[in-house]
Write a structure and sequence with these properties.
2 copies of one chain form a homodimer. By secondary structure, the first copy, chain A, is an alpha/beta fold. The first copy, chain A, is built from 22 helices and 19 strands. The longest helix of chain A is centred in the middle third of the chain and has 23 residues, at about 400-420.
């Protein structure tokens, strides 16, 4: 089911329409995913009693529809007389079972709902902030006691087990609800609202398979579809609901980011296999990228533009690969007529990149024009020079100041105004590599309504652009020269691409280095990097081409200087910039934003690292 | 103790120096606050094994100092072979007790540290994300079982109970660690890292008093001092460590935001009273504002400028009260020589406000000049008009677009460049009222390095400015005209202050309305507001002047239109702007940033509200 966060009326209509379809198809029951009434990622909206009342009222609407068939759905339960640990009414992420206009009660709590047992508190998840899980509801029970009648539902003609999202990901918990349920039932549902992240679907399939096979149980995994966000991080909820039979075979599968109604013909309680499932409502096929990161970006962005009513888009096209990919992406989603491309040269922009921009725009069939910034930049510099402040000691219009003036002139003066005048948005085209170390200008290229590409390393930006050419267009829509030109901000003579000059980042190295700081489950700091460097294992450890380190860094001092410099930016100015950056579309195992919480001004190295550095540099 | 987040080396030096002082004074032991080795608010830095190793190494340094006296301190314990629920090594927010170079062990866990029992997961706190508390370490124990030997420390000549921060705020938990400890010990320490928020100190004193009196116990509350942040929210840690005797009297108290070493002469275990405490190390007095919100802002900002190495500041001075207060605040902290004030008029800025700005600058003795924006704005508009895009249907340079062009020209073109050229920062001067509904321009007046005033409602901005005049300066440094001029953005003819025109906000009403949406523990939405309006209790409920509603809104339709409009901005564009706003200095019971988590595009009303509205509007 497509769930729209915060839109109860729309979700109720959707639930009601599926109930009708299922009822007409003669189904005995229907199951909806986790938090399908209100949405799941709602920030602190849960702290409002008004909001809880709205949700409660919606439940009563659903109850009325349960005469023809039983209805299972995930939503929020409230225990108004019990306190959560924050002193607010106790709220429970729960599954509800409505049958003949009555709620079915949970065996051990006697509550008219089935509480989630495990609470995720990592990445973007804040369950313990809002919800009381079954473990906290019954704090004096042992795991075994908790599991008695855990999520067991017995109706007249069917019985099954119910678990919710994290209850499936039980590996690191002392209590294992889904294993327990699978051992007690021949049919288990897991209701989820689980965001896409790279390779997560493989792990999920394995978990389902293990539980199904070990217990000879049919497991139905239901995931919602859509986009929800935690403010600074935009998530794609990728569907892929799965019915797995006791042998571990997938007998029916929902599409990737596709809302579908799957049906199974469940024989009876003692049956060892459900008959093959079928699809009652089937929407579209997944796009050209399949179920990959890139496919997730396209799908999430499509949902987002729909929900945020983004109808047209303005892109500053530099001739580099990042804005080129952004232009391709938005023209695929909004249509070329709704994407306006502008190139904003200063005196430092080469003919080469201007030609690339123009060619790409022509290939995409989007509106294109140049709006120059040199006059305005000159005016600003003149105005600064003639101010009284310029006579104060310390006043410096150095190259760094001049570069940032150009970047801000483009975004804040031109893009923001043109976007407003054309009722458009403009995206921030930053990739993850730049975002890690803040190689960007605040209120300049760091601005926009969204960072659709900031969860892709530079090498993945090239990969996705190449895939568009190869698998989608079948031609060089993104010009070859755009793939080969040296990446450069073109903000000074020292970044002249025609002389092969460009960014201070060596992407084949820094992509992987920065990934070790951000995406490893056990995050690396310079302490691990330098240890691996000293041990000669760094290239292997972070997946570099053999020999690269020696090629880039003639000695330990140059290696350490590079490492310290980028780390200091990553934890320093880059974190400051990220706080003011647009939301990031998340597809990796760790994206910037609220998926990657950070404090400002925290170096995160210490005496051990300083000692190791002294040792290595004194050799 | 002043704790610097993420700076282990500095914290170790500080700990060591206090140990020396205490030792020289003949103390038998010394106690430091929660997480004093690494800092507490570190984002996800805890996910790095390297960081854990750095902390562990620091513990060994402290252990070596425990020959002369016993040392209690709060820091992070790691159980490398136990998993946290996120699969990472189990980490525990704990108290350590070092004595004769040995760690004292916890009775029931047998671990060489004393785990925090309760985990806060509200406001800015994310304890469950990172830390395993005692309840999760021993999931199969009842609350009573947990409390056996909870935090009991028995040394050769003294015994005491140890609790950590939230363990004191036990009201809504089933397990009550501090009560339990107070009933078992005559001396209890609570180690905290507790951020300032309005009136929290009163509640804290009451809690301490209750525990002390009920159990006839001496309670020592230790809070660290400094500023820490969670990225989007900057916190002041306000010290105010307190020693309370069994009668509930404060016998010794640390300063407000002041690092002090308090000493008590503890007679013996059976003593019913500690003798009066004394202060070994006393720093400064708290400022002119006392222990208020305003004092917290001054103190936190002072610490922040020190830690972030902010030495000079540039402020865009409009003549309005917000930027005026900002100028006063920074000139107090950095000194008038280090604050540069610029006024940036367009053709819409009145002589009146320009004169106010100049007078204030003169009064403060800061550098002042005007740098106009009209030429640049005209140039931008001309450039937009001559673009090909301007001929597309839908292109509109309406007043709203023109207003934002002015705001961005000031901040992104002038302030950002001048600040960079003078190695300064510039603050965002937004107040909480504007921030709630996004009455600001992104990359315009919404930009800056910090929002020092965004946790004060408009009426509090006036209050603080008036207090500066009355209690600090004893003269009208902030000109009276600045207090009386109508608040206005002066971005169009419709905002002409000389005609009494200004902001669309009626502050005496909207300040209180918005406060009901954000600061109530049970947050209001339009459902509660409209219900109270219909019941005639709104003025009383949200603390309005009697008769104000009828004066502002002739009928229900106008009331609802205003309510819907601002709510829609609050949950819509304002949330989008807050995601890209600078960090907010937090002083209220609820501040924007990570203290107020929000998803984008979540209206948060529903069918109940729509129904109520229909009913009221159809009367």
């Amino acid at each position: 089911m497509r769930v729209k966060a915060g839109n109860i009326a729309s979700n109720l209509r959707q639930i009601s329409s599926y109930i009708k379809i299922a009822s007409q198809a003669g189904c005995q029951g229907i199951v909806f995913p986790e938090m399908c009434v209100s949405g799941y990622f709602l920030g602190d909206r849960w702290e409002s009693g008004d909001w809880l009342a709205e949700i409660h009222a919606a439940h009563n609407e659903i109850l009325k529809m349960s005469r023809q068939l039983w209805i299972v759905f995930g939503s929020l339960a409230v225990m108004p007389n019990q306190r959560n640990e924050d002193g607010r009414p106790q709220k429970i992420n729960a599954a509800f079972v409505a049958h003949n206009e009555k709620w079915i009660c949970h065996e051990s709590t006697k509550c008219p709902f089935f509480p989630k047992v495990l609470s995720p508190n990592y990445r973007v998840f804040d369950d313990s902030r809002h919800f009381t899980d079954l473990r906290k509801m019954m704090p004096h029970q042992t795991a075994d006691e908790l599991c008695v009648g855990l999520g067991s539902v017995k109706l007249a003609d069917v019985s099954f087990g119910l678990s919710i999202c994290e209850d499936l990901w039980e590996e690191n918990y002392t209590c294992k609800p889904t294993q327990m349920l699978a051992s007690q039932h021949k049919l288990v549902f897991n209701l989820s609202c689980s965001p896409y992240s790279d390779a997560k679907d493989l792990k999920r399939l394995q978990l389902l398979k293990d539980s199904a096979q070990q217990n000879q149980t049919t497991i139905c995994y239901l995931n919602s579809v859509g986009t929800q966000n935690v403010g600074k991080t935009v998530l794609g909820i990728d569907g892929q609901s799965t019915i797995m039979d006791p042998s571990g075979e997938v007998i029916c599968e929902g599409g990737f980011f596709d809302e579908e109604l799957l049906m199974i013909d469940w024989n009876n309680e003692t049956s060892t296999a459900a008959s093959a499932g079928s699809v009652l409502v089937k929407k579209s096929e997944s796009g050209a990228f399949g179920r990959s990161k890139f496919g997730a970006i396209e799908n999430t962005l499509r949902f987002l533009c729909e929900e945020w009513r983004v109808k047209s888009c303005l892109i500053g096209l530099s001739g580099g690969i990042d804005s080129a990919l952004s232009a391709v992406l938005f023209s695929r989603i909004l249509g070329p007529n709704c994407v306006n491309l502008i190139n904003m040269p200063s005196k430092f922009n080469s003919k080469l990149t201007q030609e690339i921009a123009q060619t790409l725009a022509l290939n995409l069939n989007c509106h294109y024009e140049q709006i120059g910034i040199q006059n305005a930049v000159d005016f600003t510099i003149q105005q600064l020079k003639s101010s009284k402040l310029s006579q104060l000691p310390g006043f410096q219009l150095n190259s760094w100041v001049m570069e940032n003036i150009q970047a801000r002139d483009r975004s804040s003066r031109i893009l923001a105004s043109v976007a407003a005048a054309t009722q458009s948005v403009f995206p921030c085209n930053a990739n993850k590599t730049e975002t890690t170390v803040g190689y960007s200008t605040l209120y300049g290229d760091q601005s926009g309504f969204l960072c659709p590409l900031a969860d892709l390393w530079k090498f993945e930006i090239y990969e996705m652009a190449q895939l568009y050419n190869d698998a989608v267009f079948g031609s060089e829509i993104v010009p070859k020269s755009c793939m080969t030109v040296v990446p450069s901000a073109e903000l000074s003579e020292l970044q002249d691409v025609t002389k092969g000059l460009g960014d201070p980042l060596h992407y084949p190295y820094h992509d992987k280095l920065f990934r070790s700081w951000t995406e490893r489950w056990d995050r690396w700091t310079p302490l691990s990097v330098l240890s691996a460097y000293a041990a000669g294992t760094l290239e292997k450890d972070i997946d570099l081409t053999s020999g690269l380190i020696a090629k880039l860094f003639p000695n330990a001092a140059s290696f350490v200087a590079d490492l310290d410099g980028w780390w200091s930016l990553y934890t320093g100015m880059a974190a400051v910039k990220r706080m003011q950056a647009p939301p990031v579309l998340s597809v990796s195992r760790r994206s910037f934003g609220w998926d990657h919480r950070e404090a400002l001004g925290i170096q995160g190295t210490g005496p051990l690292y300083e000692e190791l550095k002294r040792k290595i540099l004194s050799v």
